[in-house]
Amino acid sequence: MDLGALTSGLLTGLREGVEAALIVSIVLAYLGRTGNARFASRIWLGVGAALGLSVAVGALLFLTIGQLPSPYEQVFEGITLLVAAGVVTWMLFWMRRQAAGVSGELRSAVERVLDRGGAWSLTALAFTAVIREGIETSLFLVGQVEVASRTTDLGAISVLGGAVVGLAIAVAIGVGFYRGTRRIDLARFFRWTGIALVFIAAGLLSGAVHEFIEIGVIRFGTGAVYDVSSVISDTTGVGGFLHALVGFRSAPEALVLAVHVAYLVGVLGLYLRPLRVGPVARPERRTAGS
Question: Where are the domains of the chain?
Answer without folding.
Answer: 3-272
